[in-house]
Design goal:
This protein is an all-beta fold. It contains one helix and ten strands. Strands 1, 2, 3, 4, 5, 6, 7, 8, 9 and 10 form a ten-stranded mixed sheet that branches. Strand 4 and strand 5 form a beta hairpin. It is globular and about 40 Å long. The N and C termini lie far apart (about 40 Å).
Length: about 170
């Protein structure tokens, strides 16, 4: 199973840097260090910092801080952009490049995420975005946002179309 690759993005650090510090040598401000996305693997019990090019595995939960975001690229070309103070978990991902098929199940745990599927794959392909109260199923191609907040799930469609199922039992 191919891993997904995040590309962490954070605002540039501001403020003074103590001379000779490791943060200074890396161009970071230790007083206002940018937050980086952190995934947590179930059962591992601890977070790790993700940098551009690092693997995020199925079942990892990716969380962003107050001043960070992340872009998670899938092997099939699809990607998700995660906003600040957001979390998502990849529950399932399989891609058969030869057969042009993909199966993906991604759960938005909280916050905002934008999903972009711009390569048409086979008819057997599926991409599901789940929340506590909705399931979003895009057409073959799609560009849409999912926001999970205290009042529920909101979906914004930017291109193509999606189906949204109410899975909460409430109308």
């Amino acid at each position: 199973m191919p891993p997904m690759r995040p590309s962490a993005r954070s605002p540039p650090a501001k403020g003074p840097r103590p001379p000779g510090s490791a943060a200074s040598e890396r161009g970071e401000d230790p007083y206002h260090a940018p937050k980086r996305p952190t995934p947590r693997t179930p059962g591992a019990g601890q977070d790790r910092v993700v940098r551009k090019g690092d693997d995020v595995l199925v079942a990892d939960e990716l969380r962003t801080g107050t001043k960070s975001g992340a872009r998670l690229s899938f092997a099939d070309g699809a990607f998700v952009a995660l906003s600040a103070e957001s979390a998502l978990r990849v529950n399932q991902y399989a891609f058969d490049a030869g057969g042009g098929r993909r199966t993906a199940r991604v759960r938005v745990v909280g916050g905002r995420a934008r999903f972009v599927l711009y390569k048409a794959l086979g008819r057997e392909s599926a991409f599901y975005v789940e929340t506590d109260d909705a399931m979003v199923i895009p057409a073959m191609l799609g560009d849409f946002g999912v926001w999970v907040g205290p009042s529920g799930t909101e979906v914004d469609v930017l291109a193509q179309s999606v189906r949204v199922k109410n899975v909460s039992g409430l109308i």
